[in-house]
């Protein structure tokens, strides 16, 4: 949408120019803006469209505990301020102790999850074993980087337990696959700023499974209550070496 302090008059030569590449435009999207005009040397003030990562909303967080790890996501699917669904989980299972959370553009969340499902299945057939969290992290990174010139608008979060060593593992990614390793917690989504605050205040080292569940639940629910684009309940997975516990959290529905 273009806003101007005076009515727009006739423009002799008006052409549409693509937005800067740092706004991660993909070739299939026709987001454009008008250039400076001769009648307005200072340029027309612009209201740029929102980044596509935040169009559908969503929040995801992973935390490390003592011999366990937790990952949680909200359930909202929206179109900016319009809520479309309150049952849109964003966490996908790729091995008995390995889970991946995907926030961002909902269509890309579905695409990336299916692409990774295919690649993980091929890995399992070829190697005749389950994929480890570290291997899946590299697979996610290479798959996203493969599309770096037209990236998927997603911010993955990975959590799992290495079946060989029993060590918990979490990491996050940007839209072109740069890995962010962590020893405490990883956040993503439109509520990232709020999640950083709640996680820094509540997380402690060496939390047991029940304490870790309470911590990640309080961190996520309090964060999404302060973000209009996420919330409406949550799924929480507590991953241990011998079992995985899934719980549904009821959040505010407004």
UniProtKB/TrEMBL annotation:
GO terms for molecular function: endopeptidase activator activity. SUPFAM superfamilies: N-terminal nucleophile aminohydrolases (Ntn hydrolases) (SSF56235). PROSITE patterns: PROTEASOME_BETA_1, PROTEASOME_BETA_2. It is found in: Cytoplasm; Nucleus. Keywords: Cytoplasm, Nucleus, Proteasome. The keyword Nucleus applies. InterPro entries: Ntn_hydrolases_N, Proteasome_beta_3, Proteasome_bsu_CS, Proteasome_sua/b, Proteasome_suB-type. CDD domains: proteasome_beta_type_3. One of its GO terms (biological process) is proteasome-mediated ubiquitin-dependent protein catabolic process. It holds the Pfam family Proteasome. One of its GO terms (cellular component) is proteasome core complex, beta-subunit complex. Component of the proteasome complex. Belongs to the peptidase T1B family. Component of the proteasome, a multicatalytic proteinase complex which is characterized by its ability to cleave peptides with Arg, Phe, Tyr, Leu, and Glu adjacent to the leaving group at neutral or slightly basic pH. The proteasome has an ATP-dependent proteolytic activity. This is Proteasome subunit beta.
């Amino acid at each position: 949408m273009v806003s101007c302090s005076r009515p727009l008059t006739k423009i002799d030569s008006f052409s549409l120019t693509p937005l800067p590449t740092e706004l991660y435009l993909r070739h299939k999207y026709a987001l454009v803006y008008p250039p400076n005009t001769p009648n307005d040397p200072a340029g027309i003030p612009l209201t740029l469209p929102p980044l596509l990562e935040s169009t559908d909303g969503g929040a995801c967080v992973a935390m490390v505990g003592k011999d366990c790890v937790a990952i949680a996501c909200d359930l909202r699917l929206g179109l900016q301020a319009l809520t479309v669904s309150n049952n849109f989980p964003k966490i996908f299972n790729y091995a008995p102790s390995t889970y991946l959370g995907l926030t961002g553009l909902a269509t890309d969340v579905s695409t990336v999850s299916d692409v990774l499902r295919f690649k993980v299945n091929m890995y399992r057939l070829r190697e005749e074993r389950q994929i480890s969290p570290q291997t899946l992290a590299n697979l996610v990174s290479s798959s996203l980087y493969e599309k770096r010139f037209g990236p998927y608008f997603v911010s993955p979060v990975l959590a799992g337990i290495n079946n060989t060593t029993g060590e918990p593992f979490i990491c996050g990614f940007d839209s072109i696959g740069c890995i962010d390793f962590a020893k405490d917690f990883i956040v993503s989504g439109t509520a990232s700023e709020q999640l950083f605050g709640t996680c820094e205040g509540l997380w402690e080292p060496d939390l047991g499974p029940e304490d870790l569940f309470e911590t990640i639940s309080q961190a996520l629910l309090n964060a999404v209550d302060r973000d209009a684009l996420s919330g409406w309940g949550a799924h929480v997975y507590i991953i241990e070496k011998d079992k995985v516990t899934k719980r549904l959290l009821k959040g505010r529905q407004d």
